[in-house]
Structure formats: C-alpha cells, structure tokens
Prior knowledge:
Blueprint: H1 3-8, H2 19-30, H3 46-56, E1 62-69, E2 72-78, E3 88-89, H4 93-107, H5 123-126, H6 139-143, H7 157-161, H8 166-172, H9 187-201, H10 205-217, E4 239-240, H11 242-253, E5 257-258, E6 261-262, H12 266-272, E7 277-278, E8 285-286, E9 291-295, E10 298-305, E11 309-314, E12 319-325, H13 333-353
Antiparallel strand pairs: 1-2, 1-12, 3-4, 5-6, 7-8, 8-9, 9-10, 10-11, 11-12
Helix pairs in contact: 2-3, 3-13, 4-9, 4-10
Amino acid sequence: xxxxxxxxxxxxxxxxxxxxxxxxxxxxxxxxxxxxxxxxxxxxxxxxxxxxxxxxxxxxxxxxxxxxxxxxxxxxxxxxxxxxxxxxxxxxxxxxxxxxxxxxxxxxxxxxxxxxxxxxxxxxxxxxxxxxxxxxxxxxxxxxxxxxxxxxxxxxxxxxxxxxxxxxxxxxxxxxxxxxxxxxxxxxxxxxxxxxxxxxxxxxxxxxxxxxxxxxxxxxxxxxxxxxxxxxxxxxxxxxxxxxxxxxxxxxxxxxxxxxxxxxxxxxxxxxxxxxxxxxxxxxxxxxxxxxxxxxxxxxxxxxxxxxxxxxxxxxxxxxxxxxxxxxxxxxxxxxxxxxxxxxxxxxxxxxxxxxxx
Length: 358
C-alpha cells in the first residue's frame, strides 16, 4: 500500500477486497472492463487502467467512473446508476460551483472581492444579532469555511433545513469561533454565498449559473432546491451528469478557459487552489470550495460531495477523474477509501506509465 493511501485511510477505512471481490476483479479483467477509449493511441497504461475499473466494480455504491486526459475522455464506465449524461445529485460538489460563480461575479465587478464584508447584504437580519463580529465576516471567510458561524452540516443539517428561514438561522445564532479562525465545514456558509449572489447579480443563483457557467461549458443545469424564501440552495442538491462534472473539472485544469473563452479568471482558479485552512475532520487542506492534497508526487485538487461524489484534478498529469455514487444512506468511509485507493494505486500509475502526450 502506498504512503498516500495509508495517510488517507487514517480518516477513511480502507476498502478491503474479499474473495468474491477478487473473483469480480478477475472476471472484469478478462472482459477488458468494458472500457471505452478514444480512437487515438491510449493515453493511459492499459494494465493499471483495467485494474482500476475492475476494482471499481467491487464498490457496490459506485455509479460511474470517468477518466479524462489531455482534454479527452480516455475511459469511462457506468456501474449501478443512470447514464453518464443523466443529471445526478452531486451534493457538496455544489460548493465548488458556487465558488466558481463568486469568482465570476468578482471579475464582473458585481462583488468587490474576497475581503468584502457580508454585513451590508444582510442588514435587516443582523439587527437581531448582537455580536458585531458577524457583520465583518468576509466573502473569503465564507468560501474557506472560516466564518465562525454556526455549523449547519452533519448532525445539525436537518434542523437547519427544517427552519423557516435558512439565512436568518445561520446569521442570528451565536458564533462558534472567531471569524478567520479554524475551518468549520458548514453548508450554511455556501448558502449565504448564494443569497449574496442573488442580491449582487439581481438574478437567481440558478439563472446566473446557467448563463455564466453552464452555457459556456455546454452542459445542462436544471433548477434545484430552494429555501423557503426562494433562494437556490448554495452548496447542496445541484444535479449534474458525470460528463458535466468532467467538463467542470477540465475548466479548472485549463486555468478557467474553454477554448478561447476565459470563463473563470485564471487568478480565481489559483486562489481557489491556494491552501487557506485545514479540515479538523480529515486533516486535508482547503481553499475556496476545493480540497487540496497530493497524489504521490503530484499536486491534486478535488471537489467532494457526500456519499462519494468526486472531481479529482491532477494538473501535471493532465488528468481529470470523476466518480459519482449513490448519494443517500449513512456515511460510508470504506466506500470513500475505495475510490481514493483506486485513484492513487491504479489511475495515477496508469497516467505516470503512459508515454507523454500519448
């Protein structure tokens, strides 16, 4: 087992292959894993690639695995879920998309920047908040989960989304920590960003995302959940296909460009991938809506949604990998460790072993 997998699995219980799983691996390997490749010479080493899909087949919750390199899908497979073009719930990958929209809004001068305080956007609500520190929380602190606001993810999530006003719930509760302090992962932070975008752009977050992001990417984005006040959920419940997630990951790998169009400022991609804090749960570094890690010797950036939704981007290997999983049910650390393991032990070696530019 590689050093990186051992490190990751002190958080996530590693996927252990049973006898039946070994038989599945053998069976799928003999069948060639039904991998779809491009007509060009393979840009991934076949043996490791085949092994990746064989191992993926042993993960019962995995719905899809798509691997792109040099800007083209090299291999993909649907397992237990819908087609690769069907929208699925990407859970907290939505936070990475909200981050992209904030970067676009800043570039368009609809927002002043990451140091802009949030107080003026919520002046009416904050009249009921006696702690003056809340008004001074910045957009950047919401993005990096360093706002200090009450946690609304995990055990607190259900109570929050059952409340009459999600924005008021977050802003009027006592602070958990000093703004700018430790990372406290909370979907409420991202929802405030959606509320801010709605005011700043004078359009719904859905409409803004559809025109500024989905259209230039050539992907379909459907309306998703809204709060009781009609604000689109910031940070959860967006529905995108596996192929759409690949395009979003490729957008970041290509420094915010699609062809000749700069969709997201290149500086925003760099800012999003700059470590700002570290998760108290996993120990992983975090930027603006993206986790930051390493795959062997390679810097890696990933968007992560509950249940096993991932976009992995490894720029120096020209590699983007997407995994989607059944999103419901209890948190399954073994499943998450299984995805991370096949990425580090099979897909990354497949890219490393392939001839450059193949």
